[in-house]
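Researcher: We plan to redesign the surface later, but first we want a full-length starting point. Tokens attached.
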């Protein structure tokens, strides 16, 4: 009898704890939290040239998304607010949000229906699309030519599904990050490297002997992700983003990072 009483008490206690935790989860308002701390923890890339990459000399992450996150932070919380950066990968960015390690993710993240089941997105802030990088002597000209070829992609990105849709006979080889995938291309382990156009442009900037072919074969813009249900945070990000677009800050940052890249047309990405 005592054992049953103890077990029942234990189960009730666990149930009450679970309900309390769920209640706290529902009540948490990320925007109110960042407003009170004057700090936004952003999930960002550190391996993606032009968007977010580590500067070995300074030990800091630099890039278009880093500058945009800083500008958004000040627009949302005031000039003395702090943008804190947590590095993420294609595989970990949603989990970082779910675990509340970050308040928002701005990490070359394509808006997709599948991801929208797990997170909420801001309006698009960059017109990305899948593109193809090959060696300069390659005969590959477009996505159809990837059939019966070895195609290198990064895990957790939308590239594999995009390639399979347009070139179902392609052999997909997946890597943990962009550096590994490009290294594999240079080593001759694949015939082409497929990912977002802006990312490939960043890699191409520092590499000779390679080219982009076929233009973008998908339209997959980037959005800033927040946890499901954080409607106020999402709203404030959108308001700040619109303000930065209207006052010219967005275009200034775009030209700073992409203006001198011959293979990228800044005009296609400019706002207002």
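Model: Full-length starting sequence:
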């Amino acid at each position: 009898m005592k054992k049953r009483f103890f077990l029942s008490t234990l189960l009730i206690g666990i149930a009450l704890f679970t309900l309390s935790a769920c209640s706290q989860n529902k009540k948490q308002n990320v925007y109110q939290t960042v407003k009170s701390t004057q700090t936004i923890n952003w999930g960002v890339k550190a391996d993606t040239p032009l968007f977010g990459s580590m500067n070995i000399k300074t030990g800091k992450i630099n890039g278009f998304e880093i500058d945009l996150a800083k500008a958004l932070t000040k627009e949302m919380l005031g000039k003395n607010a702090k943008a804190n950066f947590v590095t993420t990968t294609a595989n970990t960015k949603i989990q970082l949000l779910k675990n509340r390690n970050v308040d928002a993710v701005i990490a070359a993240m394509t808006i997709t229906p599948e991801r929208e089941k797990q997170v909420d997105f801001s309006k698009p802030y960059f017109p990305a699309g899948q593109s193809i990088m090959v060696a300069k002597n390659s005969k590959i000209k477009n996505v159809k030519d990837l059939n019966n070829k070895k195609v290198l992609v990064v895990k957790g990105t939308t590239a594999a599904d995009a390639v399979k849709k347009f070139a179902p006979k392609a052999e997909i080889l997946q890597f943990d990050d962009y550096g590994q995938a490009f290294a594999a291309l240079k080593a001759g382990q694949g015939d082409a490297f497929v990912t977002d156009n802006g990312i490939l442009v960043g890699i191409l900037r520092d590499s000779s002997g390679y080219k982009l072919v076929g233009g973008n074969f998908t339209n997959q813009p980037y959005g800033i992700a927040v946890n499901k249900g954080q409607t106020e945070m999402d709203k404030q990000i959108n308001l700040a983003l619109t303000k930065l677009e209207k006052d010219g800050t967005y275009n200034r940052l775009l030209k700073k990072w992409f203006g001198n890249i011959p293979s990228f047309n800044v005009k296609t990405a400019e706002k207002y």
